[in-house]
Recover the amino acids of this structure.
């Protein structure tokens, strides 16, 4: 359903819908809760380590990337389940592709953190 709000009201409405999405993900998805908790722990680390601005940006971006991809994957899974809970090859493929995207974002974040943080400690 498309909002009829314009200007600032549209922006405020979009922000409210975004927070509703994050809250819905928090309530329904253990993976989202785990990733938000991990972000809460790692965010101060990213801000406190002695790294360049570009490296700090990479640390922060990878944390955000994981959550973004997880939210998109949850959206895919929700739509697939809404259409039908019966098994269908394409539904399984869509879910597997979303899951693969989450895995790649986690591996990317892990690699970036392992390349940057240990080097900043020495």
């Amino acid at each position: 359903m498309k909002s009829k709000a314009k200007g600032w009201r549209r922006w405020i409405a979009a922000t409210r819908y975004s927070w509703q999405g994050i809250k819905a993900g928090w309530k329904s998805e253990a993976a989202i809760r785990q990733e938000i908790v991990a972000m809460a722990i790692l965010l101060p680390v990213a801000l406190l380590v002695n790294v360049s601005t570009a490296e700090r940006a990479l640390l922060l971006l990878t944390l955000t990337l994981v959550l973004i991809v997880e939210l998109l994957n949850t959206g895919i899974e929700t739509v697939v389940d809404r259409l039908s809970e019966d098994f269908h090859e394409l539904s399984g493929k869509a879910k597997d592709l979303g899951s693969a995207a989450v895995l790649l974002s986690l591996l990317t974040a892990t690699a970036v953190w392992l390349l940057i943080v240990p080097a900043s400690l020495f």
